[in-house]
Amino acid sequence: MITKSKRTLLIPLTSILLVAVAATFAACPSFRAETGEEAAVPAAAPRVPGPDAWWTGQAEAAERSGQPDAAHEFRARAIAYASSLQAQKAAAGPGSSLASALPPLAEAALYVQTPRGAAPKLAKHEPASGVYLGMLGADKRVGYDFSKIEGVYEKKHAMYLAYVGWRKFQTDTSTYFPKRTSDRVKELGGALQIGWEPRYGLDDVKDDEYVRTFAREAKASGIPIFLRYASEMNGNWVPWYGDPQKYIEKFRLIHDIMKEEAPNVAMVWSPNYAPANNIDEYYPGDAYVDWVGFSLYATPLTGGEEDLEHTVIEYFAPLYAKYSHKPIMIAEGAVGHTVLKTNQSYHAWGEGQLGYMYGFLPRMFPMVKAMTYFNFGRAQAQRSNMEYVYDLGESALMDGFYKRLTRSDLFLDGVEQGVNAAPQQYVPLSGSHLPAGKQRIMMYARMKDVSTPFAVALYQGERRLGISYEMPWEIDVDIPAADAAKPWRIVAFNKQMEPIAATPGTAVVRAASPDKSNSGSP
Fold first, then answer.
1. Whether this model's pTM surpasses 0.85
2. Each residue of 124-161: b (16+ CB within 10 Å) or e?
């Protein structure tokens, strides 16, 4: 795998976001803004410990792991949080004139939690709501032993990722299918995602005894299998790239064989997120695809130059708009926090990118039903000639935030067809009016340099409705019907609780959406 370069396309991201989710939310109930009727308020999972206690605990963990800079940052946050609580009245927020003088947020939007509508017909292994939490355990602490993941990351995962080379014989089990791995996953009560890679090219993919045996052994595993056959086919770094028609023919062949031999196998069609301009030509058709998967990465360099101004949301939004008629998984995704060649680290930036990936993305895009972190250690990355370190354990800021984010009940620790783990979903709010009544609101606020604010608050005029100190910036509000029509604005703060950016009382501030050119996978 090699890094991808980037180029910018002038496509309004927030326009894409609203188009992408419009069909999904068409059947959602109204916000009752005019009647004043109170909406049902979901019981929010308690955030225990609170931010200050969490940061203090993470500071101690960072000290133990030999990362004093991260420990210092965590302690600074805890102190700033305590100070902000003491001074909340004094820092009640800027008035309209002050807000108008602040630099604008690059992107700003509100999402309101509302009851989820009835689920349509579900695909194989698809939950009605919620996100299967997955991981490739190739980091230093787990070392490919999936049984360690729960202890290290403080949550049981639902899905485990393994790669299988074409025609590779598993000598320890005398099988083609990775039986030893699947047995271990079965003991953990999980599902297995398999990257099945036709390394000898598409001409070697045939209806033969190898494929049939693999399929029968997959069925015998007795667990849910997500078969990511010939992934990243749109990238020139794989030998199955370059002939879309032949790719489609072979994908359909594998689908048909699995349908006959292995009903527990869900077929995952999984391009890389870049290049995006040739993805569609590889699509095998709805009848042959159970899930759509994407490889999705955030890296700090482009062509050797620092490039920190984009997020995974910007790259993912147009893909979601095209393929959200299927359940979507982030089949492998990660944030590169350290450049191997220079050992330059971008831990704070990486933490923010992780917030976009695991905080905002699954809440903004409700057809995302599974996410697998590509947790690849430094030694493995060096042996594979990769450019970045993705290992969460080497970045205390990212490690702590991954644990914090994935504690949410949104992330499922087991694969169960039809489970409805998140009966509430976020709906994008268009216009300048807030819904009346008690609501849970998510504030999407992106700084122009993609730095992470210390806090984000929602205002109506001089009145601060709520403030959040953690991505994805969620608050609970109670809007009187008489105030629903008053314009709102989002204000971002630094650790000194000084306002640093804001949006006026409009729903959206538009910004350009980037794209990435055809180079390679990180």
1. yes
2. bbbbbbbbbbbbbbbbbbbeeebeebeebbebbbbbbb
Cα distances (Å, whole numbers) of residue 250 to 163, 197, 202, 283: 19, 12, 7, 12
The reported pLDDT for the residue numbered 95 is 40
The span from the CA of 256 to the CA of 6, in Å, is 37
Other Cβ atoms less than 10 A from the Cβ of 392: the count is 30
Q: How far apart are CA 104 and CA 36, in angstroms?
A: 32
Catalytic choice (217, 232, 394, 470): 232
Query: Going by C-beta distance under 8 Å and a sequence separation of 6 or more, which residues neighbour residue 369?
Result: 126, 127, 130, 131, 132, 291, 327, 328, 329
Burial class (CB in 10 A: 0-12, 13-18, 19+), 342: exposed
What digits encode the pLDDT tens for the residues 13-53? 444 444 444 444 333 333 222 222 323 333 344 445 789 89
Categorize the per-residue pLDDT at 512 as very low, low, confident or very high, splitting at 50, 70 and 90. very low
Catalytic residue status for 332: yes
Q: Could you give the CA distance from residue 316 to residue 330 in angstroms, rounded to a whole number?
A: 10
Catalytic residue at 351? no
As a three-state string, the secondary structure of 284-326 is CCHHHCCEEEEEEEECCEECCEECCCCCHHHHHHHHHHHHCCC
Q: What is the mean pLDDT of the chain?
A: 87
Catalytically annotated residue among 126, 332, 351, 394: 332
Distance between CA atoms of 471 and 117, rounded to whole angstroms?
26
Classify 304 in phi/psi space as left (phi over 0), alpha (psi -120 to 50) or beta.
left
pLDDT at position 19, please? 43
d(CA 94, CA 148): 48
